[in-house]
Amino acid sequence: MSQNLVQQSKRLLSLDVFRGITVAAMILVNNPGDWGHIYPPLEHSGWNGCTPTDLIFPFFLFIVGVSISFALGSKKENHEAHGQIILRALKRALILFGLGLFLSLFPKIFTNPAEAFASVRIPGVLQRIAVVFFICAVIFVKTTRKTQLYLFWILLIVYWALVMFVPAPGVGYPNMGKETSLGAWIDRTLLGEAHLWKVSKTWDPEGILSTIPAVATGLFGVLVGTFLRKKNVYASTKVAWLFTVGTTAGILGLIWDLEFPINKSLWTSSFVLYTGGLATTALALFYWIIDVQGYNRWTKPFVVYGVNAITVFFLSGLIPRILNMIRIKTPAGEELGGKEWLYQTFYVPYFSPVNASLAGAITFVLIWLGILWWMYNRKIIIKV
Predict the structure, then answer these.
(1) Is a pLDDT exceeding 50 seen at residue 230?
(2) Which whole number is the average pLDDT over 337-355?
(3) Tell me, what DSSP letter sits at residue 232?
(4) In whole angstroms, what is the distance from residue 94 CA to residue 127 CA?
(5) Looking at the predicted structure, is the pLDDT value of residue 296 above 50?
(6) In the chain, what percentage of residues exceed pLDDT 70?
(7) Would you say 359 and 33 are in contact if contact means Cβ atoms under 8 Å apart?
(8) Burial of residue 89 (number of CB atoms within 10 Å: 0-12, 13-18, 19+)
(9) CA-wise closest residue to 56 among 110, 130, 129, 117
(10) Tally of CB atoms within 10 A around 200
(11) In the chain, where do the E strands start and end?
């Protein structure tokens, strides 16, 4: 079995599983019962460093890159008109970007549209996915694998040089500060503080400048996906090479961390290598277990998340907002949003604060698992 030439023209089950695990983890960390009580591994790092939660978004962008090579590879090889491929990619990117903006506008867009647009956060998770997807799709369609590898390293080195050597206007020296970095200045200048992350309003973790290395994360996935699609390479050889590449990239990221710290909010070049290496290793493991060895009976809960990933991410962000529009009075006379009332009623009295918060998040993930399982059994797959 280990020496079989596994056919890679079809959909990779391991990729769906990897995507599903990543999205389920994303929903878990995005929906704690109480943001004030969270287990440390389920929080982002304060600044430099990397927690398990910091791995989720780069893993998803990596998966986006792998998916591009599988979705567009045959079209490129069959010489389908590049313009049509790029136009479809642009349409999808615009829809994703629009969904992200809608989440930022909701629900204020229905109660006070003028204020909603005046203060809407323009960057965001779906917005970054949209931009990275489109740029990587264009690069994949219009360039060779060798050029893509060159571009990957150019993006990392150029970003490193910009952050470490270009003085931030108004500060006078290059730095990696939250509010004083070059990226923060660009975001405030081009987008305005009203349109940045509401927690800070002076910088944004999905800002403009850090999109450069985020594209490199997507290209990492494109390169891995292109290699996985090779039909004349033994599965065991693919796995060995992917483990080697993943381990090497992770080590290089740790070495670069000594000079250019691993930082999710700035999406540093060391962060790209470190997380890309871990993502490659994880995908290699899933590929070997699921697609090569055929151990796939356990995969359905993650597949149902993986095939409707964008749908569940969007709706899991929308539903809590809708619930909080429902106002409920407690016996003590306090008025709570629907989501908060459910949490205070069914979790807080029965758990410690941190476990109540975790239980609320796990319940949310399980509810969506049930919904997605029903959709999957009825072949309802919503493609953006």
Answers:
(1) yes
(2) 95
(3) S
(4) 9
(5) yes
(6) 97
(7) yes
(8) buried
(9) 129
(10) 14
(11) 327-329, 335-337
Proportion of the chain in helix, strand, coil states, percent, rounded to 5: 65, 0, 30
Q: Which two tokens stand for residue 46?
A: 């304060």
The token pair that represents 383 in the structure block: 């493609």
Q: What is the DSSP letter of 378?
A: T
Taking each helix axis from N to C terminus, what angle separates 309-325 and 125-142, rounded to the nearest 10 degrees? Answer: 160
Overall pTM surpassing 0.90 (yes/no): yes
Whether the CB-CB separation of 335 and 327 falls below 8 Å is answered with: yes
Residue whose structure tokens are 């997605």: 372
DSSP assignment of 173-199 equals S----TTTSHHHHHHHHHT-GGGS-TT
- Rounded Cα gap, residues 190 and 188, in angstroms: 6
Number of CB atoms found within 10 A of residue 45's CB: 15
| Per-chain mean pLDDT for the chain | 94
Residue 5 banded pLDDT, cuts 50, 70, 90: low
Quick: pLDDT tens for 12-61. Answer: 999 999 999 999 999 999 999 999 999 999 999 999 999 999 999 999 99
Q: Give the C-alpha distances (Å, rounded to integers) separating 352 from 30, 249, 262, 358.
A: 20, 40, 33, 10
Are 271 and 61 spatial neighbours (Cβ–Cβ below 8 Å)? no
Tokens (6 digits) for 298? 């356990």
Give the CA radius of gyration of the chain: 21
Q: What is the pLDDT of residue 10?
A: 58
**DSSP type of residue 52:** G
